[in-house]
Amino acid sequence: MTTLKKSFSDRRTHHRVTIANCMFNTNLKIGRVIDISLGGISFYYADRHSWPEQQTSTGTLYFEAAPPLKELPLHTIADLELPNNYTPGSMVIHRRSMRFGALSPFQKEILTTLLKEIPPKVPK
């Protein structure tokens, strides 16, 4: 697994969509989706140092206005522990980036449709 550096080149080949009100679940961890594309997903999650170190898994996307998209094949690209002001040993916030594996035709079709219909996130 690669740890993100302060500066890195963006090697994404798919357009990313910033998304609001979308959750992600894998390995019994739940995170808030930051952005998503046909190539992968990034999300924040809270950890107590118990995230499994396996790099490959499956996950489920939960959208606000659509049925969940299940059994998405994933491979971890990067995991970054974000700075915090919590006491040592407490919960830590991470940003994880994962690449989709071989999506089924159904998964790809649903994801493509959902990405076209997601309204842009309005900055506050």
Features:
mainly beta; Thrombin, subunit H; single chain; 124 residues; six-stranded antiparallel β-barrel
Structure description:
The protein has about 120 residues and is mainly beta. The protein has a single domain, classed as Thrombin, subunit H (Beta Barrel), CATH 2.40.10. It has one helix and seven strands, in the order E-E-E-E-E-E-E-H. The chain has a six-stranded antiparallel barrel. Strand 2 and strand 3 (about 30-35) form a beta hairpin. The longest helix is centred in the C-terminal third of the chain and has 13 residues, at about 105-115. It is globular. The termini are far apart. Mean pLDDT is about 80; it is low at about 1-10.
In short:
With 124 residues, this protein is mainly β.
Q: Which residue ranges are poorly predicted, with pLDDT under 50 across at least 5 consecutive positions?
A: 1-9
Strand proportion: 35-45%
Q: What spatial order of strands do you see in the largest sheet?
A: 2-3-4-7-6-5
**Overall number of structural domains:** 1
For the record, what is the CATH homologous superfamily label?
Answer: predicted glycosyltransferase like domains
Indicate the structural class.
mainly beta
Encode the helix/strand succession as letters: EEEEEEEH
Span from first to last CA?
A: 33 Å
Shape descriptor: globular
How would you state the average pLDDT, rounded? 79
> Which topology does CATH recognise?
Thrombin, subunit H
**Portion in helices:** 10-25%
**Total of helices:** 1
How many DSSP-defined strands? 7
CATH architecture: Beta Barrel
Rg to the nearest angstrom?
15 Å
Biggest beta sheet attributes: 6 strands, antiparallel, barrel
What is the top-level CATH class?
Mainly Beta
